Predict the structure of L-seryl-tRNA(Sec) selenium transferase.
Amino acid sequence: MLLKSIPKIDKFITNKAFDGLSKALITKISKEKIQKLRENILNNNIKHFDENILINSIIKEYKNINSSSLKTVINATGIIVHTNLGRSLLDEKIFKNAIKIATSYNNLEYDLQKGKRGERYEHITKSLKALTNCEDAIVVNNNASAVFLILNTFCKNKEVVVSRGELVEIGGSFRVPEVMSQSGAILKEIGTTNKTHLKDYENAINDNTAMLMKVHKSNYSIEGFSSDVSFEDISKIAKQNYLIDYFDMGSGHIMDLPYNLSKDEPSILELMKQNPSLLSFSGDKLLGSVQAGIIIGKKELIEKLKKNQLLRMLRVDKITLALLEESLNLYLKNELDTIPTLKMLNTKLEVLEERSKTLKSKIEDFINCEVIETSTMVGGGTTPNKKIPSFALSLKFKDFKANKMEEILRKNLIISRIENDKTILDFRTIKEDEVEKIEEILIKEFKNV
Ligand SMILES: *Cc1c(COP(=O)(O)O)cnc(C)c1O
């Protein structure tokens, strides 16, 4: 009996409720739902069927499929280069040129002077040379590809000397030893987990050695009885032995950072003074631009990288190049406030305190809150274990547990942090124009409940 009341698909999809929606997609969803319904009836799982409920569930599914999966969130964790939340942000201003490039034909691989084929990497070398004093540069998809390309080009079946303390695994399953073996390079581990000395490098060099490599430890650091060799010293030995010296910097910051963050971490400008063979770093960590792997160094080596077939698989597209060029120009013009990552890092504590207090004053009549001094980290495998001071608002509502608060906020696309059993909103990463939005959400969720 119930089975008979199931609508016929051809007629069903002409229902007015589906007007204006894609017929093909509505038909597909309807068929699936009706099939499911039939099965449920046959299995005696349902005793009653309502056509309106069916229609609504189809429209809901339709909307779900058509909505963007990538959503903006408010990062209230305080972690600036948050790997899970998209790493570095870009300022809208730098999209202006990229939009023009993406929507018009352009000279991506065309030499306008000679009227013939040009090279896509040329567009970025001008700014990188001006900014870092490098001889030449190349940009690939991300820093992981940069490492792979370099090892594959110069170290296939040859030895690369790396300190055991630097054989790290970086988030997203990037393990230095595995990347090496995949690239064809032979890993020559030296030293121990906590200590590597200059003489370890010297002793490891033999006829089959191609490179001395240093890897940024990224998301860990060794405290206490430990020592490693500076890139400066590694460079010297490499030069004496006519080997390539290469530093996978990971994050790579152009100039010194506030809060003493660059104390043990020389900037790109600092490292370039030693005239290294090769440096590579990410475009979207501390540099604060788009996802990319930037390689700078000696011209003859960059030329060789350009000849490797692998480059075709790792190359960047025009939008990346356009955005990266704009970011680099901001450094050249010293407009660092237009680089959100640096802007957040450089925001004065007083400003963060003020913003916390402002929000507190707007919500304290319905939610328990407290302005607290706290500390956060840069994130993204940059400057491990180094804290930066910050201000936050700690929230407490009735007898709600911290994780319940966190969940309510998260459902509203605010990602908070739990600290000492409290849900906190860290103002280091909350953009100025997001404070009002947070206020609205807190009112909606907690006022008059
Ligand atoms: C982050 C990092 C990488 C990988 O860079 P991506 O841009 O994420 O590909 C490689 N090496 C080190 C030391 C890193 O910190």
Q: What stands out?
A: The pocket of pyridoxal-5'-phosphate is lined by residues 142-144, 147, 170, 174, 215-216, 218, 248, 250-251, 282, 293, 381 (CB under 6 Å). The chain has 17 helices and 17 strands. The chain has three domains: 2-66, 74-81+343-446, 92-336.
